[in-house]
Amino acid sequence: MARLSGTGTALVTPFKANGTIDEASLRGLVDWQIKSKVEFLVPCGSTGESATMTRAERRRVIEIVVDQNSGRVPIIAGTGTNSTLDSLDLTHDAKEVGADAVLLVGPYYNKPTQEGFYQHFKRIVEECNVKAVLYNVPGRTASNMLPETTLRIAEEVENVIAIKEASNNLEQIMQIIKYRPKNFAVLSGEDSLTLPIITAGGDGVISVISNEVPKEYSDLTRAALKGDLKKAQELHYKLFELMKANFYESNPIPVKTALHLMGKIEESLRLPLTKISKPNREKLKKVLKDLKLI
Predict the structure, then answer these.
(1) Catalytic residue, candidates 108, 135, 217, 248
(2) What percent of the chain has pLDDT over 90?
(3) 135 SS3 class
């Protein structure tokens, strides 16, 4: 795999009303995303509600995505948890069913030290012999992996190929970009920061909004990577209200609501996530109507 770049969609996991995985809708989303020219797909991340799926369900979602993809784009499967042992099991599963790489979120709840981050990721990647993208999202995990730790892992742990940075700290992200190894990619973990991160030297994004507007958002990312800032800025501000709308409530509540309103999936989430409030539903509908998505 060359240095990862462009737009990767953090796929939602469609559920039926009874709570089971909606395989037909998931296969439909995969085809739509690829036809819309996103560069890679990321099932079973935070947006995919992986934290409330069983190991068997996570394996099955990855298996469906890999099968439907049929080798068209890279598949980077979310296998990280707050338990190193559980993450090992999930990573072995993803490798067995054909994922090209894995996405490993920083351990949540435990609040590891920087050495804990290093040892956690090192063990998973080396024991499973798999390519990996790190995922730093302090707002969800309650711990920030510092740039020095990211760079140490990138230098010392073979097969760690990228980081999804969602710290919202541009100075931290720029430090990683400046000192990273040659083939280590830095990906935005926040849709609204993709443009500034790319202009600072980043490589792309793992995106929520590309669930709803895969063509437009991947066009934005490609324009920015090519240096066409005029086009990138136009698309950025065209989609800016939708970027904000996706976080009216906890992700993926708004994006799954939007996809339901667009006729793509059923409106079904796993507790403790619940349906969007009526006021936020109306606000979201207006944004979608303004973009002619519904």
Answers:
(1) 135
(2) 99
(3) strand
